[in-house]
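To: structure subgroup
Subject: Chain for Friday's discussion

All,

I'm putting the inputs and outputs inline so they're searchable in the archive.
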Amino acid sequence: MEDSTSSGDYDGSYRTPTISHRAGSGALADSVLFLDWHGDGRGYGRHDYTGSPTV
């Protein structure tokens, strides 16, 4: 992903907002990420991630 200005200047990076929440020691969650790569013609792709008690 790249961030760009309206004049087309690319800096090679992209930052999204961060969601933060304090969880207890036994917290575990699954997540889903939807990405749409611009110009690939495939639309949104789903990426599933299963929560794990191991880091």
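Points worth raising on Friday:
The two ends are 26 Å apart (CA to CA).
The longest strand covers residues 31-35.

D.
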